[in-house]
Write a structure and sequence with these properties.
Length: 125
């Protein structure tokens, strides 16, 4: 299972379709607090996290997930239109396992996903 966290429904839809086309199972959250709450009761193989969300940013949400779960935290991959080198460094420092610029290209998405897990790991048994 891969959790997609993005406040924009179109972005969630596109990412979900890309992942489902390769056999991944997905779930969605619309903001950081919802993602944190979802992760408390579920065990995603990875999280695709938008960085620029209202209220709690993706960086803040990722830091909270890492704080709560420590070494048991899933791979969290930043997905953002803010692809400056400063933002990439901020994401790396926050413990993100990768960085995907928007608009998301399938090749980039799956290169990073494949670094962290296999398709079987993200599909429900």
């Amino acid at each position: 299972m891969i959790l997609i966290v993005d406040d924009n429904p179109t972005n969630r839809f596109i990412l979900a379709k890309m992942l489902e086309s390769r056999g991944y199972t997905v779930s969605e959250a619309t903001n950081g607090p919802d993602a944190i709450e979802w992760i408390r009761t579920n065990d995603p193989a990875a999280v695709l996290m938008d960085i620029n969300m209202p209220g709690m940013s993706g960086v803040e949400a990722a830091l909270e997930i890492k704080r709560l779960l420590g070494s048991q935290a899933p791979a969290i991959i930043a997905v953002t239109s803010d692809n400056t080198s400063v933002r990439q460094i901020e994401c790396k420092d926050a413990g993100f396992g990768g960085f995907i610029p928007k608009p998301v290209r399938m090749q980039s998405l799956f290169e990073i996903i494949n670094q962290h897990l296999t398709p079987r790991a993200a599909v429900d048994p």
